[in-house]
């Protein structure tokens, strides 16, 4: 019964069909938002890069764990960006949020966002443990650093370990992407239940699978580029993608029939 109610709630508003290359427009608008109000985004980006550096320091000799942890970051990134969705929303209203106001969105006043964040954290943790177990258990040699990972996992002869790792990650990441691509900004912006937001996200993906596949690829490539630049690229990439994701939500979902959240 609850599932039926959530489905009915999701169908109260529509999802829009978009052109294939529309995600490039989201990147352009996301960049414009970052330039108009850079401080909140750069604080989020610096915090993300600092967390990545701390993670590297804590598990310096366990790259098999790092590989899963950084890919797991992509799973929880939508909830991490919540404050920046609020920044883009207020820019559309003609108002700039301060850093403090963007961080205030993290306060656990909205049980829906808290619940969604916990679910994503469980998913990310599950992937980190699964990834680490797969690599540590089947790699022919200990994985202590990036070159070990490349030689013993990526380029290992007569081994399907890397392909299996990618396949397993894709099996987990694809439904999570479909569940989150518009769900978190929708929860921030409108009065709607968590399951209804997730169902709306799935409806958006099914309506426009090719543009959203392109969007997923752009997110992956830009995030990997940010990580490759000694993590410093994340200072810009994280807020850029967060602001762009807000515009993806606004393009994909017609929320005219729902009341706004203050």
UniProtKB/TrEMBL annotation:
Keyword annotations: Membrane, Transmembrane, Transmembrane helix
TM ranges: 39-58, 64-87, 113-139, 165-188, 209-242
Protein name per its UniProtKB record: DUF2189 domain-containing protein
Native source species: Rubrivivax gelatinosus (Rhodocyclus gelatinosus)
Origin organism lineage: Bacteria, Pseudomonadati, Pseudomonadota, Betaproteobacteria, Burkholderiales
């Amino acid at each position: 019964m609850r599932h039926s109610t959530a489905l009915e709630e999701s169908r109260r508003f529509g999802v829009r069909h978009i052109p294939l290359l529309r995600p490039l427009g989201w990147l352009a608008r996301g960049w414009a938002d970052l330039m108009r109000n850079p401080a909140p985004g750069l604080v989020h980006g610096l915090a993300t890069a600092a967390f990545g550096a701390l993670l590297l320091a804590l598990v310096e000799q366990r790259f098999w764990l790092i590989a899963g942890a950084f890919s797991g970051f992509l799973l929880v990134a939508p909830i991490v960006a919540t404050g920046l969705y609020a920044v883009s929303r207020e820019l559309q209203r003609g108002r700039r949020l301060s850093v403090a106001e963007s961080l205030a969105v993290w306060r656990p006043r909205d049980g829906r966002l808290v619940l969604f964040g916990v679910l994503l954290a469980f998913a990310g943790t599950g992937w980190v443990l699964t990834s680490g177990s797969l690599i540590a258990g089947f790699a022919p040699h200990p994985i202590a650093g990036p070159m070990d990972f490349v030689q013993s996992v990526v380029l290992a002869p007569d081994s399907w370990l890397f392909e299996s790792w990618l396949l397993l990650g894709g099996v987990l990441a694809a439904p999570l992407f479909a569940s989150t691509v518009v769900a978190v900004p929708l929860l921030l912006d409108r009065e709607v239940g968590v399951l209804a937001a997730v169902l709306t996200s799935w409806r958006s993906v099914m309506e426009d699978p090719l543009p959203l596949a392109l969007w997923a690829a752009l997110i992956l490539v830009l995030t990997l580029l940010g990580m490759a630049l000694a993590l410093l690229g994340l200072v810009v990439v994280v807020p850029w993608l967060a602001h762009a994701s807000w515009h993806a939500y606004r393009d994909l979902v017609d929320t005219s029939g729902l009341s706004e959240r203050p």
